[in-house]
Amino acid sequence: MESMDAPGEEKEKGSLQDSLDRYVRLNNIYLLIISKYKDYIEEKEALSVAELPTLVTPKAAMVARKAADIKGEFDSYNYDANFPDAARKAFDFVSKDVGDAALPIEFWLMPEETLRFMMGDVTDKSILLCSILIALGNPSSKVVVVSRDSTRSIYVYYEFGGSIVMMDSESGKVEKFSNKDEMLKAFNLDDESAAYEFNDQMYIDIS
Questions:
Q1: Contact partners, residue 24, CB within 8 Å, separation at least 6
Q2: Domains by residue range for the chain, with CATH
Q3: Could you tell me the sign of the dihedral formed by the alpha carbons of 136, 184, 110, 117, in that order?
Q4: Strand spans (E) along 28-172
Q5: Alpha carbon distances (Å) from 145 to 18, 24, 110, 192, 195
Q6: Torsion-angle region of residue 187: left (phi > 0), alpha (psi -120 to 50) or beta?
Q7: In the predicted model, is pLDDT for residue 182 greater than 70?
Q8: pTM to 2 decimals?
Q9: What does the pLDDT read at residue 78?
């Protein structure tokens, strides 16, 4: 026997579809506005290298709260004993739980905004991860940007126990190196490459 929806259910479904259609149309309007003013927005969003550290915000309320949540997953969080596992939990959260969002413009999201929307591009997610790692107690954590031709790769790394751990939220890979020179060698930097790193305290050109 073919099931039939009650009149109330049909009305509810119709209302839901109308809301969804309106949302899609509204979203298209927003995209149109963004496209029209793309150059202006990107000009206003441009940051100097000296301003990049302002994007890493380990003391921001939502970032500190997320770090506290991760610490709370341990019986009694101890940096020396638990940081590597806590860092992995932070990485899994950012790479798996925070959704990917490719915007049609160059636009910076602050870590709290990435957490609020639970979305961001690889740059936003890497900056969020770096912020959480610092909030977990590791001030050596940094974002590394490597550019070659028209491609750009972004990583986060930290120093711990005499080693370097590099995280790639885009690929989901974590690699360990014995020192920073070994990590830099893995980037295959050449005369056509540009690379820099930063956190909340510094910016350094490493190419």
A1: none
A2: 47-205 (3.10.620.30)
A3: negative
A4: 99-100, 119-120, 142-148, 151-160, 163-168
A5: 43, 34, 17, 14, 5
A6: alpha
A7: yes
A8: 0.79
A9: 97
